[in-house]
Design goal:
Growth Hormone, Chain: A; single chain; mainly alpha; 0% strand
Length: 450
């Protein structure tokens, strides 16, 4: 009990934590810390394999394959949601992803080319495992609790991203690229144990007061979670969910196009360094891996600082409606600058600013947006939005890249200007989603500014 009180007091410096709330908030933060550590350990493996054996263009085109796979995987996931408890759901999905990493490691060491398959897999893994975690967090917390405590939980994600990036950077040289797959597998198994502990704690938690009960979504939830198309219908029949999906589609379209600009520049620089004999004995694969580890570290350190010192205060004082529009404003400025100064330093600064805000403030806010949804929407519909719509944004980016490189011969400034147009549309959707959230949650806290 003494520890809980001390933790409550410590966390109040960063968020509005009330008596007894610190234990579950810290466990959830530890859970997402392990998930993000695993992902950022695996991320340089993805970049090294796809950019060495493939190309930056192939990297963007493969997103279409992820979308096709998700059209089959998400309905299967929705059936699991409808038929199993949340603990069994999470354990089953985590076990499948962990086993896949062992298989990739074995195939890679056997000399089988795995770059395409692993790229497809990690794009699905990242979306589904993180969306599942936040569905779990939404299932545990009420609207008021989520708005107050999600910044603490999100801090775990920010720390995990920084730690994972640094861990990958330190391990690449001594153990090699493929061995990082086993490190990621071990981290996933560990976080599964934490999830089970949180679920047991939540089962003993007293029922939330009536005024904190989540409000159903504006359109009636479908019972189609058990049908092949139910999870998709749940989104397309609900204006609030559909707007969120379209907003995330544009977020990822813009982000993936920006990643293409940066990735092409990094791979060209690595090849030039090896050809000139200035690589210090490193291969193209290792230079790319280390460059991305450095880039991810910069991004995640800034994201961590934003999460720790600003996110809770911005949500509390500006509200969700304003906070959801902050990232598109930053992206609008970044790509306008990049259009006129297309040098690698500017590219790096623009992407660090964009992604650090995305991983901290925007990540917290977009998960808060699901608090007024039903349980099935928090799991099944969230997978459609956080996985399918996000990956469809990658497909749209691939189309843009194909047209830009094949027919229009666009360089960095041209792609940056295309992103400016997309960001304007994204900003309009963000404003609309924020207004809908305010209307949905207003009855939850009558007379309360929170």
């Amino acid at each position: 009990m003494g520890f809980t009180k001390r933790a409550d007091k410590l966390l109040r410096a960063f968020a509005d934590v009330r008596s007894g709330e610190s234990t579950n908030a810290l466990l959830l933060a530890l859970n997402i810390f392990l998930i993000l550590t695993a992902y950022y350990v695996l991320k340089p493996v993805r970049e090294a394999l796809i950019l060495k054996e493939g190309s930056a263009e192939l990297k963007s085109y493969l997103s279409a394959g992820q979308v096709i796979l998700l059209m089959f995987i998400i309905p299967l996931y929705a059936r699991l949601v409808a038929r199993t408890s949340r603990r069994r759901l999470i354990n089953t999905v985590t076990a499948i992803f962990s086993l896949c990493l062992v298989v990739f490691y074995a195939l890679g060491n056997a000399g089988v080319r795995i770059d395409v398959a692993f790229f497809l897999w990690i794009g699905i893994f990242n979306m589904m495992i993180v969306a599942q975690f936040w569905g779990f967090a939404n299932d545990i917390y009420s609207k008021n609790e989520g708005e107050r405590l999600f910044p603490i939980v999100g801090f775990g994600a920010s720390v995990g991203a920084v730690f994972g990036s640094r861990l990958a950077a330190r391990l690449i040289a001594p153990i090699g690229i493929l061995e990082l797959l086993l490190v990621g597998c071990a981290l996933l198994v560990l976080q599964a144990f934490i999830t089970n502990l949180i679920d047991r704690n939540a089962a003993r938690k007293p029922a939330a007061p009536k005024e904190s009960t989540p409000v159903p979504s504006p359109a009636p939830a479908t019972s189609g979670g058990s049908s092949r198309s139910g999870s998709f219908a749940m989104v397309f029949q609900n204006p609030y969910l559909l707007q969120m999906g379209l907003m995330l589609l544009l977020v990822n379209w813009v982000n993936t196009t920006g990643e293409y600009i940066l990735g092409r520049s990094i791979s060209r620089a690595a090849e030039a360094s090896v050809a000139a004999g200035t690589a210090g004995g490193l291969s193209v694969e290792q230079i790319i891996g280390q460059s991305y580890a450095f880039y991810f570290t910069l991004t995640n350190i800034l994201g961590l600082l934003l999460q720790l010192f600003l996110v809770s205060r911005l949500v509390k004082h500006l509200g969700v409606t304003v906070c959801v529009a902050i990232l598109p404003c930053i992206s609008l400025l970044s790509y306008n600058v990049l259009a006129f100064y297309p040098v690698i330093g500017v590219m790096l600064a623009a992407k660090v600013a964009e992604n650090s805000t995305d991983y901290s403030l925007n990540n917290t806010v977009r998960n808060i947006l699901f608090l007024p949804c039903t349980r099935e929407e928090k799991y099944s519909a969230k997978q459609v939005i956080d996985s399918f719509f996000v990956r469809f944004g990658d497909v749209m980016a691939a189309v843009l890249i194909f047209l830009g490189t094949t027919f229009m011969q666009l360089e960095a400034p041209g792609f940056a200007m295309a992103n400016v147009v997309l960001v304007i549309a994204w900003l309009g959707l963000a404003i609309g989603v924020g207004r809908r959230y305010r209307k949905l949650t207003a009855p939850l806290t009558p007379g309360n500014p929170q």
